[in-house]
Amino acid sequence: xxxxxxxxxxxxxxxxxxxxxxxxxxxxxxxxxxxxxxxxxxxxxxxxxxxxxxxxxxxxxxxxxxxxxxxxxxxxxxxxxxxxxxxxxxxxxxxxxxxxxxxxxxxxxxxxxxxxxxxxxxxxxxxxxxxxxxxxxxxxxxxxxxxxxxxxxxxxxxxxxxxxxxxxxxxxxxxxxxxxxxxxxxxxxxxxxxxxxxxxxxxxxxxxxxxxxxxxxxxxxxxxxxxxxxxxxxxx
Length: 236
Hints:
Layout: H1 2-15, E1 19-21, H2 24-31, E2 41-43, E3 62-69, H3 78-88, E4 91-95, H4 101-111, E5 114-118, H5 123-132, E6 133-138, H6 147-154, E7 158-161, E8 177-179, H7 185-197, H8 202-216, H9 219-233
Parallel strand pairs: 1-2, 3-4, 3-6, 4-5, 6-7, 7-8
Helix pairs in contact: 3-4, 3-7, 6-8
């Protein structure tokens, strides 16, 4: 089934006049399928509302509590996240629900991890949560280009992430956030400890993260890039 899907993709990508993808990794993957017309694939990274997800200049974010937002599913590696938090003794606000919730609750019960699960929040509530706290944690096993991470960085949060495609395109270790060595709980815990030990660097990292998102993931930059590529494709 996978090979048939890949063949269909190859036919469609070669037939298309222009192909838009969200990451450089996807660009490289799709470009390998295209036999001619170099330059027909372009990267248009996901955009977010950079006004809604913005820092509060009048509030110093609370540094002692981590925030995670996402589905409680195996892809998000939430068991390892809970274990990592237990190892560090940090508190975690986990916003989301899913099939892994019972397993996460069992880890909380077994380890005494300071994890609060909030099944759902509206966008306005999430943006307020991001402004209140400094550290965002995303330890996924695989991602595309995680919009919630872009929103957190836009809000000036210091991101701690797993070293996987999608996250590494956003988080540069000790510049726009912190990267763990792997997706294992022990390595996520080590990255959390590094972030906590370097709190003096947080304002600079927060500013660099926000600047990166404004430059690449605001609606204005997205629209400008998309319009330019479409005009080029039709010869304008």
